[in-house]
Amino acid sequence: MGLGSNLGDSLKILQQAWQTLGQDETISLIALSHPYLTSPVGMESECLFLNAVGILETSLDPEKLLTLLQQVERGFGRNKKTGADGYQDRLLDLDILYYGDQVLSFSNLVVPHPHIADRLFVLAPLTEIDPDHCDPLTGKSAKSMQNELQQQLNSGREVRQEIKRNTWPDTS
C-alpha cells in the first residue's frame, strides 16, 4: 500500500496512520519503507510530499480494505473537495497498490494502481522493501520498473521527479 501526505506534520501522520492500521484486527503489518520526501507529481503544489510504501496482510476483500483506508484518512482529517479536478493537497492519502497478484477493476478501485510505473515515489520505497515484487500486469519486478522509469527521467522523456530518502523518528 502507498502512504502519502503533504500537509501538516507528514512524518508523524504517516507513522501514526501505519500504526492505526496495525491496530485493526483484520490487518497484520509486515514491512514499511523509509519515508521519501518528494516533489508533487501530476499536480501543482508548493508543498513537498512525504511518501512511503507498506506491506500488509489482511482478511478483508479489496473493497472493504479500501473502505477501511478511507475511514483512516478521514480520521486524520482528510476531506476530499467535491467538484475539484485532479489531485489535491492532503493530510493523508492511503492507496492500495497491489492486492496479492490480482488484477481488479471496480468503479471505485483499480488494482494494480494504474500509475505505479510512472511514480518514483512509489517505486523507490517499494523497491526498498520488496525489489522482486512482480507486477501482475507487466510481469516486471519493482526494481526493473524503477530502473526503467529512472532511465526515462534521466533522458528527459518524463518530467523530473525529485526524491530523497528520509528516516522515521526514533520512537524508543
Describe this structure in words.
The chain is α+β, with helices and mostly antiparallel strands and 172 residues long. It has a single domain (2-79, 87-165), classed as Alpha-Beta Plaits (2-Layer Sandwich), CATH 3.30.70.560. It has four helices and eight strands. The chain has helices at 10-22, 62-75, 120-129, 142-155, and strands spanning 2-5, 27-32, 36-38, 49-58, 93-95, 104-106, 109-111, 163-165. The strands form two sheets. Strands 1, 2, 3, 4, 5 and 8 form a six-stranded antiparallel β-sheet that branches. A two-stranded antiparallel ribbon has the order 6-7. A hairpin with a 2-residue loop joins strand 6 and strand 7. Helix 3 (120-129) runs antiparallel to helix 4. The longest helix has 14 residues, at 62-75. The two termini are 25 Å apart. The model has no long low-confidence stretch (mean pLDDT 91).
How would you summarize this macromolecular structure in one to three sentences?
By secondary structure, the chain is an alpha+beta fold. It has helices at residues 10-22, 62-75, 120-129, 142-155, and strands at 2-5, 27-32, 36-38, 49-58, 93-95, 104-106, 109-111, 163-165.
Number-wise, the strands total 8
Average pLDDT confidence is 91
Shape: globular
| Residue windows where pLDDT falls under 50 for at least 5 positions | none
Strand content: 15-25%
Q: How is the biggest beta sheet arranged?
A: 6 strands, antiparallel
Task: Label the structural class.
Answer: alpha+beta
Walk me through the topology.
Layout: E1 2-5, H1 10-22, E2 27-32, E3 36-38, E4 49-58, H2 62-75, E5 93-95, E6 104-106, E7 109-111, H3 120-129, H4 142-155, E8 163-165
Antiparallel strand pairs: 1-4, 1-5, 2-4, 3-4, 3-8, 6-7
Helix pairs in contact: 3-4
